[in-house]
Amino acid sequence: xxxxxxxxxxxxxxxxxxxxxxxxxxxxxxxxxxxxxxxxxxxxxxxxxxxxxxxxxxxxxxxxxxxxxxxxxxxxxxxxxxxxxxxxxxxxxxxxxxxxxxxxxxxxxxxxxxxxxxxxxxxxxxxxxxxxxxxxxxxxxxxxxxxxxxxxxxxxxxxxxxxxxxxxxxxxxxxxxxxxxxxxxxxxxxxxxxxxxxxxxxxxxxxxxxxxxxxxxxxxxxxxxxxxxxxxxxxxxxxxxxxxxxxxxxxxxxxxxxxxxxxxxxxxxxxxxxxxxxxxxxxxxxxxxxxxxxxx
Length: 296
Ligand code: GUN
What we know:
Elements: E1 4-5, H1 8-30, E2 35-41, H2 45-61, E3 64-70, H3 76-87, E4 94-97, H4 107-113, H5 125-132, H6 141-152, E5 161-165, H7 172-180, E6 189-193, H8 200-204, E7 209-212, E8 230-233, E9 237-240, E10 248-251, H9 256-259, E11 265-266, H10 273-290
Parallel strand pairs: 1-11, 2-3, 2-4, 5-6, 5-7, 7-8, 8-11
Antiparallel strand pairs: 9-10
The structure holds guanine.
Guanine binds at residues 96-99, 121, 141-142, 170.
């Protein structure tokens, strides 16, 4: 039987409804409007799509939002200066610097300069450390989006064997730490795999829940998964397609035609994890505006 589709758009819409209600309450009770600053250095077609979706999301929520665009040759000192200014801006509760950055700018210096209480990406070392030790913090958007997709689609990871393929700081590593927590919606047994594995297929076949996040187009095939597994595809890759209008199409890290014949449930690309990332970014911005995350 073909797999059921996990509808990321629908689940993201539920979360956005909750964020909108929370925003209205924050405005009514405390006269605070959540504010998000988005910084883009240089030009990148993938980032442009993200900027548009983020802008639309902020508008729907009733947030204040600004986008700062800097040229690709911006010196690091100028970017750090902008971040410091936004750290002190009382109208801004969340700061997101789009990655990757041009090579003259050191990513680690940028991420540590953002006030960790405004770090809606959850990439500051304080937030990374607090996540690993299970303390309250702002958590990375895409991994939390994956967790919410699982829980809200009736595939709670508790007690299951989750295999993550891909060890990035943005997805794989934080997701490992989220799903390992002894908490509702987590409590999984997690295996961290990656493209350097000697026999990747042997590991992926062990998964009750398989997360593909290695950034290689359509590389998880149907014969690499256990029948009945739940498969979450975090990848977004451009592949050439002469039949497409613009000469390319977007595809995930999962080979959908073969995997959907074996899996119980799978996320589509687009329309799976992508909309969840934006929804969690909005929720993180609301949480940052509410404050009190770091009281312990
Ligand atoms: N580039 C790709 N994904 C992300 C993300 O989640 N946050 C930021 N800041 N940059 C990214």
